[in-house]
Amino acid sequence: MRSPYADWMKIGLDSWMLGIEASTVIGMRLTKLAAGGPGATAEAQRMVAEKMQAAWELQVAAATGRLGSTPEAQASKTLRHYRRKVRANAKRLG
User: Fold this and answer.
1) Domain assignments of the chain as residue spans, ordered by start
2) Which of 1, 17, 36, 63 is least surrounded by CB atoms within 10 angstroms?
3) pTM of the model
């Protein structure tokens, strides 16, 4: 029998992983920003634009019901959305 807390345990672990992955991207971005120059300016602009786009996409998904109907589904899909964005940045910056 599956535990009623299994979904929340996975959500907790996914949240933890998002934190680790985001910390890595923050470090890579800070290195790029500290170097200065046109690359740093472009990265700063990209960072702000990406954050606004990711938040907008998530709001649209929530408004249209694509996040699901349960709190567990909504939390899981939200984490998946942000982890995908963070992993793409890690790959690009790495």
Assistant:
1) 69-94
2) 1
3) 0.90
